[in-house]
Amino acid sequence: MAGLFVTGTDTGVGKTLVSCALARGLREAGVDVGVMKPVETGVPAAGPEDARALVAAARVADPIEIVCPMQFDLPAAPSAAARAEGRHAHLDSLSGAWQTLSDRHAFMLVEGAGGLLVPFDDETTMADLAARWELPVLVVTRACLGTINHTLLTLEACAARGLEVLGVVVSHSTGPLSDADTANLEILKAALGERLIGEVPPGANAASVDPRVAGLEAVRARAIKGRSQT
What we know:
single chain, Rossmann fold, 6-stranded parallel β-sheet, two-stranded parallel ribbon, 9 helices, globular
């Protein structure tokens, strides 16, 4: 299946913003993109906000219950949120929704919850989900202090688990940078080299950010490659 798994180095780094920009850009480029937020926690009464944003960006009519089959009230890791409700979160329960969406669409854009090793349960993580569905990974990272360690650790975890990394997108989710942040970010960029495929500026929002700064060209090339191989 042609697709992409979007993960982050942390929670709140801008995964949904980047995912929405990519979904919108792919749709505008003529790619039949489907979206999925397999699990969302901290879901309000109105429904899963990240999943709804993805549906709107991709302009799909897929039911939200399929796009986001696991929904929990507590804003915590899926395993903790499920335990708080006396429920069980496991990858196997996502198989039906994944099959339905991947049959409907030529390319699947899947946004994880939190970082790569956030647990579904005591045995499985977001990384296991990407591996099971054989999806390359796009890593979204923050621009401020701490990003070098978080980003390189995430890339090492991908390598250790045999996950292909399509690239890294830097998100200025915390706003303008201090001098220390800027100096730090330049070191990360040098370390990433060609793996850096996008940089979303401060103040961007999902509806207006240019998809190209979110790594659209690299993702579109992967979508076209996947389509030509099917």
